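The instructor's notes for this session suggest beginning with a concrete chain rather than abstract definitions. Hand out the sequence below and ask the class to guess, before any prediction is shown, which regions might be ordered.
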Amino acid sequence: MSVSKYILSTAIAVSLMVSPLAASAQVTDPCQIAIVKALAKYKKTYLKAHSKCLNNENKLSLAGNACPDAVTNAAIVKANGIAKAKIAAACTSVAQITGLGYRSDCAYEAATQGREGECAALPVTTVDQFTECMKCWKGAELSEFLAIVYASHASEVCGGDLGETSPVCSDLDCTTPLPDQHDLGDTGENDCQKGLGKAATKYLLKREKVVESCLIKGCTKTTCLAGTCTQYPTSAILLDKIEASKVAMINKKCGGNRTPQPGPAGFCCRCGTGNSCMVAADQATCEATVGCTVQLGKTCDVDLTCTPGPKTLTWWDNCPESDTCPGAAVTTMDQLTACVDTTADAIVDELMCFQFPGYPCPPADIDVTTTTTTTTVP
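After discussion, reveal the predicted structure:
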């Protein structure tokens, strides 16, 4: 997200709101616990439903060939109802919620445009409205994550706009050059993309669950990540396992010889019988030639024979999640995996900032001004 659009007062620059949670007190309030657990289930459904839709679209097996489809929307609506019911059952009033340190409005960021502007303007006068506020911000962040992970459908995920005026996503930091926007087809590249999406989603959800569990037990972000919180001494071990599982899954589905690149995969213009081909300037020229078809992932060699080309994955040239642009270069699968880490970790921090009053928010990213007293976080 763009740093320039956020407004930080002098007080915010040197302090953050602290609730009993930030003072390393175990969370026991049923309302706080219900908020955490209900929204965790909502986020899981949101990510998995959208990922499934994109996977089907890539394989050209989606009716209407556009996401989100009716099935995805139905799953989100159902999850929304469940989350609202769970929170309403444990939180009797907005006063109870604000007493835990949450804002009395929805302006968690000084956003005035796009989806974030819509979220910031939401009212919070009832428990249901509070839940809608939380879901709005979280949905915008999760959509940003999906747009980065599913690079070949980033524009579609964000409603055609990856910037501050996106009607769906929190804005992506660095998006130039934009990867080729297209369906991958029933190909090895799509198998890699599907595995990447699954691995990245699992990583984000599991990392968030560990951090949430740490905070509920009274740990801080620092002690949780370091594994030094006595209430949750295994946190760092669990985070290491989550990282290893993600790397293993990406390697298994993508292999070690696939190259991420923003441009379209190579193609061979196969003509006639066997693997005979002709050199074509572009795919349109090939498709317009009688008797010729486009074969992706292959090249027409000097013998005019279609041969397998280098394995690629349509992805970002530079990691979109970055404080400065361009972000870190992404030319290998290892660099892609590192970008997934950077992105997921940043998104988790922002989700936790919304969800846990007193959680150290990303610098110059979240407006944590509240009507309550602020205290410097140690």
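Then share the key points. Residues 3-261+314-375 form one domain. Residues 1-23, 364-378 have pLDDT under 50 and may be disordered.
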